[in-house]
Amino acid sequence: MLIETKKLTKRFGGNVAVNEVDFTIEEGKINAIIGPNGAGKSTFFNLLSGSYTPSAGQVIYKGKDITKLSPDRIAKLGVARTFQTTNLFEQSTVLDNVIVGHRLRTKSNLWDAVLRTKRFAKEEKKCREKAMEVLDFVDLTHVMNQQAGSITQEEKKRVAFALALATDPEVVFLDEPTAGINPGETEGLADLMEKMVKRKITVCLIEHKMKMIMKLADKIMVLNYGEKIAEGTSEQIMNDPAVIEAYLGGDASA
Amino acid sequence: MGSLLKNRGWVIGALAVAILFPFVLPNAYFLHILTLAFIWMIAVYGLNLLAGYTGYLSLAHAGFFAIGAYALGLLTVKTEINYWLALVLACLITSAIGAVVGLVALRTREHFFAIYTLCVGYIIYLVIDKWDGLTGGVRGLIGIPVPSNIGPLSFETPLSQYYLVLFFLIFTVLVMYRIVHSLTGRTFIAIRNSEDLAQTIGISTMKNKLLVFVLSTFFAGLAGALYASFIRFIGPDIGYITIIFDLLTYLLVGGIGTLAGPIVGTFLIVAVSQSLQFLQDYRMLIFGPLLTLLIIFYPRGIVGAYYDWRMKHTAKKVKRTRKEQRYFESETVDAEKKVKEG
Q1: pTM of the model
Q2: C-alpha to C-alpha distance for B7 and B310, rounded to whole angstroms
Q3: Considering only alpha carbons, which residue of chain A is nearest residue B182?
Q4: Which value does ipTM take for this structure?
Q5: How many CB pairs below 8 A link A and B?
Q6: What residue spans define the domains of chain B?
Q7: Which residue of A has its CA nearest to B175?
Q8: pLDDT average, residue stretch A191-199
Q9: Which residue out of A48, A100, A114 would a mutagenesis test of the B interface target, given it has the greatest number of B Cβ atoms within 10 Å?
Q10: Min CA distance, B290 vs chain A (Å)?
């Protein structure tokens, strides 16, 4: 168990977006969060990565309470994430976009930059090498020197993966990683997630593509109206009456 | 590194022109205008680092320019300390006030930040204008000394002042180049792209934003201090709103978020507005529409447009060579096949 949430709750005014969710993320596995639109999946992600502060409850990462830490501190502890939309700097190259991902593992400051110290040279090289390494991992070496604005949607998703991986994470949260790309490409990204797990990086993702999730995930949690309605393996989830009701609506008997 | 090599011709050319200009065209009026333009460029570089590379459009920079100018003026006129010490202190005072303003202002974003800093800039102007006892109010501050001698170097003549300001401009460009082409610069750019994303890759956005804000006020202060000792008279109007919009125009025309933008934009606008002097304020009838068109079609200014053009050009070249390669490869495959078959 890498991350554990205890009665995690987020309220926006009178609206409860996430309601007392207990969830555990298993180390070295693919964990998935599914649920209808507006179920609170993204909010839940934002609570885990520190973008939102919970109204109540706790987030425990490797036995340490990280509930109130800022996102950058959480990232330094080894938690990375991607967003639904990938914000890349389109005018610069793919490689340039990824280099900054390793920034959090470096110490050089303004003086190192202005005076071009030894540490500066060493860390610039380190970040560049890291960027090349993760771009190789996501199979993007061939577009490395192209403008980020000129690559395909699927390649942009891979760049987002690479950026997250450049932070040397232990766990990566992927917010709808395959939204807006075609089935063939979806498979490629699923393979990439499996490859990440083989590299001892825990994966946790939000997804809408049921078929893919059922095949891919080791563990699934289903959210509906901010509450956890089911948790377990894909078989357990598929046969769960509460899940069927949430997805198909009406009575479970219908 | 690559971009430096590619641009080396431009850099050496511009430097040579700047150094040789006073000898080729020994004209006191041009020298004065150019020196002033260099001072503005330094201030625009400060603005560029914040607005162009970090995405925070500060409209308080005329205020910080004035703080730098008044700090130098007051220190040299009223306390009569050494000029160079006063110059350093002026920059530090401006940065310190910048840090305090930044701590509050950077809690806002986007247009709220612009409006907030616009107000701060106006308050700085008002304080200078109304605080008669310290600043001399509307009467301004006169008798600011020229930079004192460094060994055999004296800065009495306009020519020596020209080179002094040029020196500081080169210093500014060098510092900017090194910041932008470093992990620190990449950090700033990451904040401009998406603050949320920057945070999730472990960047402390507040700390970095404050650093940029202070740096940019430092350069505004440096420019202001140089202005004070060059013109030797300052009034509250150097902190007025119109100055910040001048600086912003220079930046937008040249290219926001580009290294050469501040030089190109400032030089061009200063040159054009000098040559259109006979039109007086009707010049704005020409500038207004031109600026609007430029922002619509070239949001990254002249330098940005040049970069885009060059990028497209190389992309085309890459495509062409790839095509040729593929053609060549298929040719060889065909040839091999033929060899095997035959």
Answers
A1: 0.88
A2: 12
A3: A113
A4: 0.87
A5: 99
A6: 2-283, 300-342
A7: A114
A8: 91
A9: A100
A10: 25
User: Which two structure tokens, joined as six digits, stand for A238?
Assistant: 């598929």
CA separation (Å) from B4 to A218, B159, B178, B284?
50, 30, 11, 36
- Greatest Cα-to-Cα distance within chain A, rounded to the nearest angstrom: 72
Residue B292, CA distances (Å) to A77, B273, B279, B284 in order? 47, 17, 20, 12
Rg, C-alpha atoms of chain B: 24
Q: Are B135 and B128 in contact (CB under 8 A)?
A: yes
Pairing verdict, β A64-65 and A79-81: unpaired
Whole-number pLDDT of residue A252:
46
Distances (CA, A) of B234 to A159, B74, B136, B237: 52, 10, 10, 8
Whether B183 sits inside 8 A of A104 (CB atoms) is: no
Q: What is the CATH number of domain A1-78+169-254?
A: 3.40.50.300
- Between A29-33, A98-102, A163-167, A176-180, the lowest mean confidence (pLDDT) is in A176-180
Determine, for residues B196 and A83 on separate chains, whether the beta-carbon distance falls below 8 Å: yes
Task: Tell me how close the Cα of A88 comes to any Cα of chain B, in angstroms.
Answer: 7
Burial of B168 (0-12, 13-18, 19+ CB in 10 A): buried
CATH level 3 topology of B2-283: ABC transporter involved in vitamin B12 uptake, BtuC (1.10.3470)
CA distance B59 to chain A (A): 24
Q: What is the pLDDT of residues B137-188, one digit of tens each?
A: 888 888 888 888 887 888 888 888 999 999 999 999 999 999 999 999 999 9
